[in-house]
Amino acid sequence: MRILLIGGNAVFHRGTTAAPAGVEEIRGDRNELTSSAQELKRFAPDVVIDLVISSGQQAEELMNISRGATQRVVMLSSIDVYRAVGISHGTEGGPLQEVPLTEESELRRSLHPYPPESLQVMRKIFSWVTDDYDKIPAERVVMSDRELPGTVLRLPMGYGPGDPLHRFYPVVKRIVDRRRHIIFPETFAAWRSPRGYVENVAAAIALAATDERAARRIYNVCEEPSFSELEWARKIAAAMLWDGDFVVLPIEHTPRHLQKPGNAAQHWTASSARIRQELGYKEPVAIEEAIRRTIRWERENPPASAFLAQFDYSAEDAAVAGHHR
């Protein structure tokens, strides 16, 4: 099977990284896909996987180029399409959304929810994000094409080697620094969101791309069950044999650098039952091994100094001392 990957390291990319041996490489700019249309058509892939699609306009361009040149398009979307995420971020009103989120759960009513300053921050981490970023219009274009079948994968919050957000690092660093107490604000400690280890998510993408039953289907991809932030921290601590204490504080007693924005009463817990039942998906890497590998990578690859704003041990010590009085 010939598969064209748009974004990532191969097959179609900017050329900033080397493609694996034996992989045919097409260099180009995702934001100027039309200029590479002839090369992409010449490759004649069975399936096109767009790893970095950012907007409805990009989706229209992708489908126009791919129509007649491939049998199916797979696009990577995000859990952030759901209305629950908008409620959590405060960009949507109304009651809390029921969880777990399924593929039929309500989507955000407001498009382009991220203000320009947030997009600038996102672009420093994910260079492919465009000014009109929103996966909802992209999904609609891909799934509504009458000639070319599409598949949409709504991905979770990823973790593992290469995680640009270093989601495990705040806990890992404090344990490495031999901190005796790690603070969580009580609302955030209980918050649940979908997670996925990078290799397991990659396995889901490969499965959906190679199984024809995935045509014209939308799938959530995430691990189950969904753990709270405190439960994740405890799993990391257990893997690192840490014998300290987690301290859960009311938000008003939590140091400012540890406070999280948004409405933590709205969980993002999602169901991945559909992809498991329809395609037989299961994670190839067990969660215990995934956590061990991620801890090892975080220790060997600390993030840039910008992450240090998350650490103010003097303020944390003062908060713990006040809690124990």
Assigned CATH architecture of the domain at 1-155: 3-Layer(aba) Sandwich
- Elements, N to C (H/E): EEEHEHEHHHEEHEHEHEHEHHH
CATH class of the domain at 1-155: Alpha Beta
Content-based structural category? alpha/beta
**SS field, number of helical segments:** 12
For this structure, what is the CATH homologous superfamily of the domain at 1-155?
NAD(P)-binding Rossmann-like Domain
Using the coordinates shown, work out and report the CATH topology of the domain at 1-155. Answer: Rossmann fold
**Distance between the first and last residues' Cα:** 65 Å
Uncertain regions spanning at least 5 consecutive residues: none
Strand order of the largest sheet: 1-4-5-6-10
In percent, how helical is the residue content?
25-40%
Main sheet: strands, sense, barrel: 5 strands, parallel
**What is the global morphology?**
elongated
Average pLDDT value?
92
Radius of gyration computed on alpha carbons: 21 Å
Total number of strands: 11
Descriptive account of the structure:
The chain has 325 residues and is α/β, with parallel strands linked by helices. It has a domain at 1-155: 3-Layer(aba) Sandwich (Rossmann fold). 35% of the residues lie in helices and 14% in strands. It contains 12 helices and 11 strands. The strands form 4 sheets. It has a 5-stranded parallel sheet with strand order 1-4-5-6-10, with helices on both faces. Helix 2 (56-66) links the parallel strand 4 (47-50) and strand 5 (72-78). The longest helix is centred in the last third of the chain and has 14 residues, at 287-300.
